[in-house]
Specification:
By secondary structure, the protein is an alpha+beta fold. The protein is built from 11 helices and 15 strands.
């Protein structure tokens, strides 16, 4: 064999070995590619499963966030969420309404600056903002692990609670005063009768002495004035519990306005009467309720010495104060309002800010309303007048109006609707 043949044989061996190595590498690469493809498919499956789980988690988180937002907005308590620096990060609608701002105006501001701007401070004692009374407290906001993550400012409207406490205190105070006044009135009335008896005897004996008889008559007049005062005191201490009946609302109010004409005619008062046509009658003692309306109307007129608007409104009560249906009879004026310092004493006997008067008018009003198992609310803003609202039980049994016509409540509503004449009266009385 020649040298050339030997070289060709060696080259063939090398080439064959190279092909074998290449085939082995290709097979290895093919196996690796197959394993990689399987791994990619497994990763795609795992990724799809992870994406599905993530989407489910996102949906659950969104549903939970929506649910929590609904809970937050449904709370009657106003809530400000603060970060560690005291900056508001979010709020609910009750908080925005209580502070008189929008959620956008609250977000990003320091809580202390917001409260200071509306005259409030961070304390548990009741504070007045407008017509509402609120308490403001702060509590830490913690994560599930117990770490602090900002804080919450809670704005609680306690107006209703304060009104109830005020009514209870007023009732207790007036009950004690009434018992004392009743005893004093009875004690005074006995010797007063003796004075009247002796005065009448003097008038008889001084029949032929006109100059001296005048003094006896003046004594008698003074005794009668004191007797009327004592009678009012006894009405305050224990109003007569006469039987109640269905009384037509419009005639009752118009009669009270007629009786108060002497006070209304002296000043330019625009009298407006707005009656709910669905309430043709109210359940009360007509004479006593007319006295209540008379006192409130005269007070309203006297609160506007330079004239104004006197509004009488009858509608349904929306506060759900009683278990039964109730109606609200309101007398409003556009006068200067009631001094906040006098609010708690308005219904105290002998309390008055007028130069003339005994201070028994509102005390008697309160006593009569209490005897009707109702209540009286006072709403006043300085410079924007005052409103006295009488809330009375309004049973939905058969109605009997003052002209002795018995109608069911449903029939009253039907008649008022079919007649096409709503019970709305507007009158203007000018000087």
């Amino acid at each position: 064999m020649t040298i050339t043949a030997v070289q060709h044989s060696e080259e063939r061996d090398v080439l064959q070995t190279a092909f074998q190595s290449f085939d082995q590498a290709a097979r290895t690469l093919q196996q690796s590619y197959g394993a990689l493809t399987a791994r990619v498919e497994q990763m795609d499956l795992e990724l799809a499963q992870s994406n599905d789980a993530l989407r489910r988690q996102l949906r659950e988180n969104e549903a939970m966030r929506t649910h929590l937002d609904g809970i937050l907005e449904s709370l009657s308590t106003g809530i400000l969420v603060l970060d560690d620096a005291g900056i508001v990060t979010r709020s609910n609608q009750p908080a925005a309404e209580a502070l008189g701002m929008t959620a956008a105006e609250l977000c990003g501001r320091h809580a202390a600056d917001i409260l200071d701007a509306v005259g409030l401070s961070l304390c548990d004692r009741p504070q007045r903002i407008g017509q509402a009374v609120v308490t403001i407290s702060q509590t830490p906001l913690k994560t599930s692990s117990g770490c602090r993550s900002g804080s919450l400012v809670l704005i609680q409207d306690v107006t209703r609670l304060c009104q109830l406490e005020e009514r209870v205190q007023r009732k207790d105070r007036l009950a004690a005063m009434g018992e004392m006044i009743g005893r004093i009135a009875h004690e005074i009335r006995n010797p007063l009768g003796s004075v009247e008896l002796f005065a009448s005897m003097l008038r008889r004996d001084l029949h032929e002495q006109p100059a001296s008889k005048i003094y006896a008559e003046q004594i008698s007049q003074a005794v009668h004035a004191m007797d009327r005062l004592l009678e009012n005191l006894l009405v305050y201490t224990k109003p007569a519990r006469s039987s109640h009946a269905w009384c037509a609302a419009e005639p009752l109010i118009l009669d009270a306005l007629s009786l108060a004409a002497h006070a209304i005619a002296k000043i330019p008062v625009d009298v407006r009467i707005d009656l709910d046509p669905g309430i043709p009658a109210i359940w009360c003692h007509e004479g006593q309720m007319k006295q209540v309306m008379l006192n409130l109307i005269i007070n309203a007129a006297q609160a506007m010495p330079d004239g104004g608007v006197l509004q009488v409104t009858l509608d349904r009560d929306r506060t759900q104060s009683f278990s039964d249906s109730t109606v609200r009879l309101t007398v409003s004026d556009s006068g200067p309002g009631i001094n906040a310092a006098y609010r708690s004493r308005l219904f105290d006997p002998f309390f008055t800010t007028k130069d003339e008067g005994t201070g028994l008018g509102l005390a008697i009003v309160h006593a009569i309303v209490e005897a009707h198992h109702g209540r009286i609310d006072v709403d006043s803003v300085a410079g924007h007048g005052a409103s006295f609202s009488i809330v009375l039980p309004h049973p939905v049994t058969s109605l009997r109006v003052s002209d002795n016509r018995a109608l069911t409540y449903i029939e009253h509503e039907r008649i008022g609707t079919e007649s096409g004449e709503p019970m709305l009266v507007e009158e203007a009385v000018h000087e």
